[in-house]
Amino acid sequence: MNKERPKSGVIHFKSQREITEERHNKTQAQYRKLQENVKKMLKKNNELLHSIKSESDYTDLLTKEERQKIFELEQEIDRIYAAARERHIAKGK
Q1: What are phi and psi of 3, to 5 degrees?
Q2: Which of 5, 28, 77, 87 has the CA that lies 20 to 30 A from 57?
């Protein structure tokens, strides 16, 4: 059970609903932040793509770190989608 200690000395025990809502809000915030990061990277990559002649040149312009970051963001998005699917399935049962 999760509890908060307000300055008044009164202990407030959170209900399971409050805990679940906090987890959901945290997950949604993480998801939105990841979406923003992916959009920024895609925009940057799109700008690069339009500034060069062939797609093979485009991949050469990405640094190893940029490719790794894109890969990590894609994995994180997949993980969040999987967790959301599991929660959705669990609610249905």
Answers
A1: -135, 150
A2: 77
| pLDDT tens track for 47-88 | 776 666 555 555 666 788 888 888 888 888 888 888 888 887
User: Structure tokens of 78?
Assistant: 């997949």
**Backbone φ, ψ for residue 4 (5° rounding):** -115, 150
Q: Would you say residue 74 lies in a domain?
A: yes
Asked if residue 68 belongs to a domain, the reply is yes
Q: At 75, is the secondary structure helix, strand, or coil?
A: helix
Specify the pLDDT at position 85.
84
Contact present, 2 and 14 (Cβ < 8 Å): yes
pTM for the whole thing? 0.41
Given a contact cutoff of 8 angstroms between Cβ atoms, the answer to whether 19 and 2 are in contact is: yes
Secondary element (H or E) of residue 39: helix 16-51
Domain that holds residue 47: 17-92
